[in-house]
Amino acid sequence: IAARGVHLIATAHGNNVRDLMANGQLNDLAGGMQEVILSAFEPRYDGVSKSIRERKSNPVFDVLVEVQEPRKVVVHWDLAEVVDTILGGNSPVGELRQVQPDGRKFLVRKLC
Questions:
Q1: What is the percent of the chain with per-residue pLDDT over 90, rounded to a whole number?
Q2: Which domain of life is it from (predicted)?
Q3: Total of domains in the chain
């Protein structure tokens, strides 16, 4: 979609990006997931696990916004990087944006 210059905003139901990745019907939005079997000579082989999950393709969207509460969202500016980080066993860094009680200002901070 984005490769054709089309701008699109969409919603997908889930609590966070991990829910999106775990949903078999929606995970193609995040690039899709596939199981890959590693050879003993593969640099990613850790000596324990012969298979890993990896992203099949580029996500449909560049940016993902998790709406956690009506006045609280987490912005992930690079969805491909977030998915790869999670598949690598790490926690992604997001940007928390929260409207202050006066309704005028955002509180922005990085989440790790």
A1: 44
A2: Eukaryota
A3: 1
